Amino acid sequence: QSSTYELQRIADKTALDALLVALPESWRKRHALPLHLINAVRERDIASGIALISANADGSLTLAAPVFPGERIGWAIRDAEAAAADMQAKHATPLEPPPGFAFFHSCIGRGPYFYGGEDRDLAALCARHPGMPLIGGYGTGQIAPLGNRNRQWQNCVVTALFNENHHVQPQS
Hints:
It is built from 4 helices and 13 strands. The protein is an alpha+beta fold.
């Protein structure tokens, strides 16, 4: 059951107990559960995680987005090593022509705080394109396309690489 942002129960367990059962054993033994690294995921929309705001004394979980009775919920863990490897892979292929500049916008919850002091996403981009000018910043939610619509993403990086296109007539 749920009442909008409060997830009370999953099957026959409190929401917190259902989460703890799903986590790796090493995570269950942590003194403070790292809620900032765990997302609830709707079965119908696995591309968007829902941040956990709090684990409550009654066993409920407060979520950053509403869930509805009957929705199937799973869990996702944010892992720094997997994220860094993914970003390295994204920048592995050389681009022709090479980009002239970049726009880089990262979630404040992903940059240096996520990687223990170094923004490994930004480092991967700069290592692949040394000296390339870029502009960007850290924020709380990035907007980028998914299919034929735009959506807000959490805990992600939006990077746009640009180069001069000689086939476009400059406006004067």
